[in-house]
């Protein structure tokens, strides 16, 4: 999800399409939150 967000962010910045930039930023933030917050258990994932 973070990689997809980065791709959309770069495409949005290069092509000057603001909606792609916003969607890219949202996907990056959601991807980081999902990686940092343990969901469905107390076991911590290590990257």
Task: Name its key features.
membrane; mainly alpha; elongated; transmembrane helix; about 45 residues; transmembrane
Write a brief caption for the model.
By secondary structure, this protein is mainly alpha-helical.
The fraction of residues in strands falls at: under 5%
How many individual domains?
Answer: 1
What's the N-to-C terminus distance? 15 Å
The protein's oligomeric status is: single chain
| Element pattern in H and E | HH
pLDDT < 50 stretches: none
What structural category arises from helix and sheet content? mainly alpha
- Total beta strand runs: 0
- Helix residue percentage: over 70%
Description:
The protein has 47 residues and is mainly α. The protein contains two helices and no strands. The radius of gyration is 13 Å and the shape is elongated. The mean pLDDT is 85. The chain crosses the membrane at residues 6-37.
SSE topology sketch:
Blueprint: H1 2-15, H2 18-36
Helix pairs in contact: 1-2
Transmembrane segments: 6-37
Keywords: Membrane, Transmembrane, Transmembrane helix
């Amino acid at each position: 999800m973070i990689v997809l967000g980065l791709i959309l962010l770069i495409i949005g910045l290069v092509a000057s399409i603001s909606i792609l930039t916003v969607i890219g930023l949202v996907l990056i933030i959601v991807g980081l939150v999902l990686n940092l917050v343990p969901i469905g258990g107390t076991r911590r994932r290590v990257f």
